[in-house]
Every structure is written in structure tokens, then in C-alpha cells.
Amino acid sequence: MSPLIPPIIGASMLKLVVMLLQMAGVLSAESDTYIILNSIGDAAFYFLPIMVAASAAKKFHTNTYLAMAIAGVLLYPDFRTLMESVTAGDTAAHFLGIPIASVKYTHTVIPAFCMTWILSYIERFIDRITPAVTKNFLKPMLIILIAAPIGILVVGPAGIMIGEGISAFIYFVQDKIGFLAVGIMGAIWPLLVITGMHRVFTPTILQTISDTGMEGTVMPSEIGANLSLGGVSLAVALKTKNSELRQTALAAASSALIAGATEPALYGVAVRLKRPLIASMITGFVCGCLAGIAGLASRSMVSPSVLTVIQFIDPANPTGSIIWIVGITLLSIVLSFVLTLIIGFEDIPEEKETNA
Question: d(Cα 168, Cα 172) in Å, to the nearest integer?
Fold first, then answer.
């Protein structure tokens, strides 16, 4: 993920600026300028699978452009439209008679990573069985024809099945124990985002808000999960001696805390350094449990941040809910910050300039 940090950071900071301009009344959400700027900021996340495939191809020593082409299939407009139709229940999709599960691949990492890993073996196998005189055209055709369907039929649906299993478990725990389910969700949320499995909760969240006016399991868990990534990034920025990592961590912290965009902190800091991810998960569990005990529930589906936690204010008990919200928000940042300093992390050595 390291080569992908610059576009992720740049895109997230642009999205943060656009959001602040909208909140200040400088830009209207319906204006062409807002739409274009937001599109520029969102493009790096939308096409993240293709960038992941290109980076992974170098690690797995397989053809970079074949990997990008196969990942591009997942984002191809006609394929996405078909998946959306399956999700909406308008139609059922099949490939050679095999049913296809609906998967949304934008913003995801693991599906493209796994597909590229599988591609590395397919490429070597095809290279051995194709005659030399046909390699230029037959080899790439067979690779794409084999690898892309495997990704569509196996890799993506496997993630969805795991995600649905986690979803069922979380709501089962909520029925039995209540607040603990919110804590578990807060702990594993960063892992779900990395794999893209967090998207299986979107229909449930939307349906719950539509039916009851609020959602009290997944969205409250994101307070600790999101803000803790800002806290660990601040701690890394304080302790690291690597100036480039410090700048990355500061940008990631502002993105997570202000905009609720956690990808820069997740990929640029937590996953990259490993131990800060543990601090984030512990904080997510603790703050998730507290959010569950407080009975916090979101009235809208907005990524929780310092600026958007007002979505959890209870109209029936505004003062009490605000106290809980402020307390959990501060605890998310402070606890993750302190835990990162206690657990520590292996700093990345700063590259020394060499004289020619």
C-alpha cells in the first residue's frame, strides 16, 4: 500500500477542503464546481482496486497491465450496473449458468489484491502450456479469460459471504448482549474496511433508518473506529523521526478527525506500522461498548467525525446524549493516542541523501 499513499492522502485532503467549503456556504452541493472537485477527490478511492492491482503485481512478479485490466473489469460501467440490478433485486446474474453474487468493488483493497495473487499463478501456468508461436495473442487472452471470472465468481462473493456472516453474528450478539455487539463492531471495523466487507452493512443501515428513523449498532461503533485512527496518526506524527511519515500522519489525522475519511490513516499509518492498528482496534472496542451502553443511535448515514457526531443527538434527550457524544469523541482520540505511545511502533528509517 505504501506507493498508493500519495494519491490517497491528496484525494482525502481535497475532499476535506470541498466539505469545509460546502459547510461554509462557499460551494453548493448542486454546483458544477462542487461536483467536479468532489469527483477529483473521490477518483483515487473509486479506482483503488486498479491501483492496488498495479502495486501488488510488482510484489507477485506478474504482468502489471494484465492485473490492472482484470481489476478494471470490476469497475466497468456495464458490470457495475448489472451488480446494482442484482442488489436491487431487479434481476439475477449468471455466468455460464453459475449465479453471480452482487459485489460493489469501488474503494476496496482485498479483492484486487487476491485476484492479482491468483493471477501470478495463472500467468505462470498459461506460459508453460501455450506454444511459443502463439504466446503473443493466446497467452494474454487465456489469462484474462481465466483470471477475471475467478475473481467475479469466487474472490468477491467469498468476501461478501464472510461479511454477511459477520453481520449476522453482530446482530445476534446485539439481541443477546446488547452493547457488546457495538464494541465488537468498533474493534473489527478497520479490518472490514480493508477487506471491503463493511459494505454489506449499508443496506441494513439504510433500511433500519428508513423503518425506525435511527440505527444503533453499526453507526455508533464507527465513532471510536474512525476517530481512533485520527488519534493513532497524531501519536505517530509526534513520535516518528521520519519527516515524510510525520507529514503523512498529520494529513491522515486531519482527514479522519474532520472528514471521517479514514483510508489515509488506515493504509498510510495503521496498517503500514501494524501496532497502531492494534491501538485503534482496542479503542474501537472500548468506545463502541460505551456508545452501546449510552444507547447512541445515528439519524443519518454520514461517516462519523468530530464535525458530524451531531447525527447521534437524541431529540428526546439532547443534553444527555450530547454529554455521551462529547465524552466518547474525546476518549476515542485520547485513548488511541496514549495506547499508540504505550504499544509503540517500529519507525520507518528516513532515507539519507547520497552525494553523486
Answer: 6
